[in-house]
Amino acid sequence: MPSPAAKVSMLIRCPPAKCFEAFVSPELLTKFWLSRASGPLEPGKTVTWEFMVPGASAKTYVEELLRDRRIRISWDDGTKVSFVFEPYSDGGTKVEVINEGFPGGAEEAMEAALEATQGFTIVLCELKATLEHGRSLGLVKDKALLIEAKHAAG
Predict the structure, then answer these.
(1) Does residue 2 have a pLDDT over 90?
(2) Has residue 1 been placed in a domain?
(3) Which is it for the CA torsion 133, 137, 141, 144, positive or negative?
(4) What is the model's pLDDT at position 8?
């Protein structure tokens, strides 16, 4: 049985260059997804991404960076994430995220893929609001609060 993967996509009504830059630039990443990024994404470089859940971070290694087309990264937990930016009609972009390589047994990997699917769906919705309307809806931040409360409850 193949390992499960999280795969989500969203139409963002902005050009591919703007969507691409939102994932590369720390200044933009912190407007919709992260609390901090140690630097911009560059081919062959490793940066630290700090997520909005307190204490959650990942060493992010840039495997591939094709300007305005694709970003492939790997995280220190062994998973890989691809961000694909395809031009769409009327100047928009189809942004697709694929997260794969979840560790553990079948059940554990499936649970991780489902959680990643939910997480990346929220991230893309937040990206859409931020780029199209110029403001965050607080979706990622609110999900981080729920995750933090779940961890605190044990």
Answers:
(1) no
(2) no
(3) negative
(4) 98
- CA–CA separation, 2 and 7 (whole Å): 14
Alpha-carbon distance 154 to 152, whole Å? 5
Whether the CB-CB separation of 56 and 48 falls below 8 Å is answered with no
Query: Residue-wise over 119-136: b if at least 16 C-beta within 10 A, else e?
Result: bbbbbbbbbbbbbeeeee
The pLDDT tens digits for 32-78 are 999 999 999 999 999 999 999 999 999 999 999 999 999 999 999 99
User: CA–CA separation, 100 vs 112, rounded Å?
Assistant: 10
In angstroms, rounded to a whole number, what is the distance separating the alpha carbons of residues 79 and 75? 6
pLDDT tier for residue 1 given thresholds of 50, 70 and 90: low
How many structural domains compose the chain? 1
Q: Tell me the C-alpha distance between 35 and 103, whole Å.
A: 25
> CATH number of the domain that 131 lies in?
3.30.530.20
